[in-house]
Amino acid sequence: MNKVRDKRILVTGAAGFIGAHVVRRLLEDGFEVVGVDNLNNYYDPRLKDARLRKLCIGPRFWFFPLDLADKERVESLFHDGEFEAVVHLAAQAGIRHSLTSPDEYVASNLVGFVNVLEGVRACTCRHFVFASSSSVYGSYNKIPFAEEDSTDYPVSLYAATKKSNEVMAHAYSHLFHIPTTGLRFFTVYGPWGRPDMAVFKFVDAVIGGRIIELYNFGRLQRDFTFVDDIVEGIVRLLPLPPNRDGKQGPGAQAPMRLCNIGNQQPVQLLHLVRTIESCLGKTAYVRLMPMQPGDVYETQARVDKLKEITGYSPHVSIEDGIRRFVAWYLGEYLPLGLTESPQFPLPLSVQSVHQNAPASIAGEG
User: Fold this and answer.
1) Closest-CA residue to 269 (of 221, 316, 321)
2) Which of 65, 108, 312, 346 is the 20 to 30 Å CA partner of 11?
3) Contacts of 224 (CB under 8 A, 6+ apart)
């Protein structure tokens, strides 16, 4: 595929965090885009609606509410779509939520994924790109993570569903010769992000004067990746489908590859909090917590494969990324009225936590 400009691309999860940014970029680059999303209430659907209204606008964009677990409607979507490429980003997200609502992950991440694979199989799609996750590496202790590393031992149901996606995609790629790229995202953040993710939660808590709970006593490290870097990787990969030339690794018999997309610079959560304090000019109130089930201690991407294929690797620093997120939060998110009002003065219980916080945190800001 030399180019996909002026062709129609399907983006699933189009009202989601990454999906809306991908739609915006594709529209800016001149593509026709069809977006679908089930608009569920995992977090406030009004934020999803706001993303669609702000980011996904233009005469070349069509949006349809759709649950991908609905096989008949997915079949109809692909039958009518004539998609040149498919960017599959829809999924039930969240590691901790998977501990209490496993059925939602089965319906969205497994049943929905198979329905999309069947749709791709039936259409003339020339490149299927889907979202996997760094969570597939589990508690693997070799850092940085490379695509060839073991992913046989997931430590959460969410991670298990993402690993399953990779395996199912390989089978379809092999059997039906579908050029496929799976992208292992590393802790994505940025404007219009998900409220359940660390950066959003921490900024919201600092502004609202609420406690931030840091697991593993603040020593967790994450490879935070700014959303613009993720989008750039996706759009560069779209016109470069893998082939069957035997150079794709252990799965070379299938035209499929897996690529990490991460910033390659792990950030300790305590440092993340200090960066947020600096950007906001406010002090964070921290409660240090033990390790939680399903969490891993550190993530770090190796992105050599992405750079080899596209010439690009993520580069937005955590300081620049947090500054840009805070500017969006204060300038666009707060005016939406979707968050609680700041809680000042602080209640006694929060003041007590602040007094007992480590000096390196309590004294910052």
Assistant:
1) 221
2) 312
3) 186, 187, 189, 199, 263, 267, 272, 318, 321
* 209-231 residue pLDDT tens: 999 999 999 899 999 999 999 99
User: Could you tell me if residue 308 is inside a domain?
Assistant: yes
Give the type of residue at 166. Answer: E
Establish whether 153 is a catalytic residue. Answer: no
Q: Give the pLDDT mean for 191-210.
A: 95
Contacts of residues 58-61 at CB distance under 8 Å and 24 or more positions apart, as own/partner, are 58/27, 60/27, 60/30, 60/31, 60/32, 60/33, 61/23, 61/27, 61/32, 61/33, 61/34, 61/35
CA distance 144 to 264: 8
The total number of structural domains that make up the chain: 1
Closest CA to 266 of 180, 332, 187: 187
Listed in sequence order, the DSSP H helices in the chain are 17-28, 45-55, 71-81, 97-100, 102-105, 112-122, 157-176, 198-208, 227-237, 269-280, 304-310, 318-328, 334-336, 348-356, 359-362
pTM of the full structure:
0.88
Amino acid type, 197 = M
* CA triple 317-51-231, angle to 5 deg: 40
- Residue at 2 is within a domain: no
